[in-house]
Design brief:
The chain has nine helices and no strands. The protein is mainly α. It folds into two domains: 107 residues, Hypothetical protein af1432 (Orthogonal Bundle); 82 residues, Orthogonal Bundle (Hypothetical protein af1432). The longest helix is centred in the C-terminal third of the chain and has 24 residues. The mean pLDDT is 90.
Length: 206
């Protein structure tokens, strides 16, 4: 689909150099979406367009506007999609999927396209790449790796704004149970095992 190649070029120009939300993140989400689309009855053009545009506005986690990223990305996507002759119904499906995909919005998308986007994005927070991303974000915000008194949140509520490892317990280990599609759940289970194995190894080392 030629329109997807044009969208890729647009997105590459827009994105800033945030290692956790860079163009490579977009392309991994895109590939995840392609795989899930093959097994789910969804409009691939709409899903992949949403994947490309889902993070065109991405405030740093330390920014008070961070929770607005998906909402602003959805609004900005509408203007871009109009350039490529998407009809109003298609634009609504794509922008709604983008608006609702974020973990911080705590929403379950209503359409299959939205469900696939949310699963595809969440998969990139899991597995080996998820570990790399969480520490890239923690490093950019100058957060310590873990709480030295209770690294694995045994006796306290996780606080990922202070310690990086807390993000595993505050968000990442919860994602498997929140997946929407059958194929998304299967892959999330596999990637979550990688997170658990990593934490087990980390426990031995600290």
């Amino acid at each position: 689909m030629k329109v997807l190649e044009l969208l890729k070029k647009d997105v590459k120009k827009i994105l800033e150099n945030d290692p956790a939300h860079d163009f490579e993140h977009i392309m991994r989400v895109y590939k995840n979406a392609q795989k899930i689309c093959k097994k789910e009855k969804a409009n691939e053009k709409l899903v992949l367009s949403a994947a490309l545009l889902h993070d065109i506005v991405s405030y740093p986690k330390s920014d008070s506007r961070s929770k607005m990223s998906s909402i602003e990305s959805a609004e900005k996507s509408k203007k871009i999609l109009k350039k490529y002759d998407f009809n109003e119904n298609e634009i609504t499906i794509i922008s709604d999927a983008i608006r609702d995909h974020s973990f911080s919005q705590r929403k379950t998308p209503k359409t299959i396209e939205g469900k696939i986007l949310q699963d595809s994005d969440r998969l990139d927070a899991l597995g080996a790449i998820g570990i790399a991303r969480v520490f890239a974000t923690g490093g950019s915000l100058r957060r310590p790796f873990y709480n030295i008194d209770d690294p694995f949140c045994k006796k306290r509520i996780p606080d990922d704004k202070t310690w990086t490892v807390d993000h595993f317990f505050q968000k990442l280990l919860k994602l498997e149970s929140l997946m929407n599609t059958k194929s998304g759940k299967i892959e999330a289970k596999r990637r979550t095992m990688i997170l658990k194995e990593y934490l087990k190894q980390l426990k031995e080392e600290v």
